[in-house]
Design a protein that fits this description.
By secondary structure, this protein is an alpha/beta fold. It contains seven helices and 14 strands. The chain has a six-stranded mixed sheet with strand order 1-14-2-4-6-7, covered by helices on one side. Helix 2 runs parallel beside helix 3 and helix 3 crosses helix 6.
Length: about 300
């Protein structure tokens, strides 16, 4: 029979473990860890001889103390050291939570991102929070957000339902950037009854004018079932891997598909999707089992 002393010792140990777990989830994993998630694949239809390294950053959610400009600059320095041919930014630069000491202005986080370097350039798309935090863009129901303008002002190409052809060692490939699928919030003040996306997958892919492989940048992975096999690889963020994962599963994922597209390399038929666990936090400054990461994809 357990004694009162034994019960209190067990209870005390439980509280101590909970406190240690909480400290890790609030302070160590979100703030002190940075993983490099590496993938190597040759998608169906990939051009023989084309060796391409893509470095991807997703979901910064710039704010203090969790994602300061100093930390963003440090992440960018590490990304530069990974030897990517092209660097892509997968959206959600704006903070997505209220538990902050200071919001980082777009002119600040964009300046930090401007330190990124890659031979074939740095290319960006927008995420849902970049739209949701911009009341003017919400009122206008489209156009540009402050994120679009901030990145353009520092020389980073932003692709909004646009495809661009790039070339490495004489081999061409396409980078196609999709506008956000959850861009416009519902509400009477906006005159919208439901969430409205600004993505145009068909229109974006219609710009691809040859048979070179296509890499699609789409902030939310939920578009993946609609992506044709013509696209060699889809890169997404948004989910943060669930932000909390136990035994490889996340209790809550911001996707209508649940855990199906929550994290990692997903293959369905001849189609490939890689979902980044992201770098920052939204809703709450907690990460457990999904440390911040830079994604490196070697193709060919």
């Amino acid at each position: 029979m357990i004694t009162r002393r034994g019960f209190l010792q067990t209870l005390g140990s439980g509280f101590a473990s909970f406190a240690a777990l909480g400290s890790y989830a609030f302070a160590i994993e979100p703030l002190a860890r940075l993983n490099i998630a590496r993938y190597r694949l040759t998608p169906p239809g990939w051009t023989p001889g084309l060796k391409l390294r893509v470095v991807a950053l997703a979901d910064l959610h710039a704010c203090e103390p969790w994602m300061s400009t100093k930390r963003i600059a440090s992440i960018c320095a590490q990304a530069n050291d990974l030897g990517g041919d092209v660097t892509v930014l997968l959206g959600d630069y704006a903070s997505g939570m209220n538990l902050v000491t200071r919001y980082v202005h777009s002119s600040e986080w964009s300046k930090a991102l401007a330190t990124l370097r890659a031979p074939l350039g740095v290319h960006a798309i927008m995420g849902n929070h970049d739209w949701w935090e911009d009341r003017t863009a919400q009122k206008n129901g489209g156009g540009e957000t402050f994120g679009h303008r901030a990145l353009a002002n520092v020389g980073i190409a932003v692709h909004s339902n646009a495809a661009i052809r790039l070339e490495k060692d004489g081999f061409g490939f396409w980078l196609a950037g999709l506008e956000d699928q959850l861009a416009l919030l519902p509400g009477k003040k906006w005159g919208r009854r439901s969430m409205t996306g600004l993505d145009d997958l068909d229109g974006t892919l219609a710009q691809v004018s040859d048979t070179a492989p296509v890499i699609l940048l789409a902030h939310e992975p939920d578009i993946f079932p609609e992506v044709p096999a013509r696209v060699s690889l889809t890169l997404s963020g948004h989910t943060h891997g669930g932000q909390v994962r136990f035994a490889g599963l996340a209790p809550a994922v911001p996707s209508r598909f649940g855990d199906r597209y929550a994290y990692g390399h997903i293959v369905e038929g001849d189609r490939n999707l890689i979902v980044s666990g992201g770098l920052g936090c939204s809703i709450a400054p907690i990460r457990f089992g999904v440390p911040p990461e830079i994604v490196v994809v070697d193709l060919g």
